[in-house]
Amino acid sequence: MDARSWSRHIVEKEVPCIIGEIAVPAFLYDLCAGGCMVELGDSRSVVGQRVVIDLYQLETACGEAVWQSGCCVGVRFDVPVHDAVVRHIGFTPPILPFEKQAPRDRFGRVLPPLAAGDQRQLGL
């Protein structure tokens, strides 16, 4: 497999998208300067079709659907998206070091510390 030309950023946001000449809702999973992966609401075949994605009014990316796996579609852009736009839209990890981040449940609530359980003496 070839090495990627651009670094990929996690996005995970809904974006307006036009495939062929049909407007469809899409979920943008990741983005790099040269392309992206979107998930469509259905699994109709779109490989080879023109794709236009509105990147939050910062830029409109035009390209071609080059691969598809179920509802997920890989898009290669005609012209690379500026790196500043990719970084702005992409996921930015928290500034806190990992060790200081409190574990949370899927609703964002802080989880209590785990009990140490029964303390046992090793019988050697």
From TrEMBL:
Protein name: PilZ domain-containing protein
Species assigned in the record: Novosphingobium barchaimii LL02
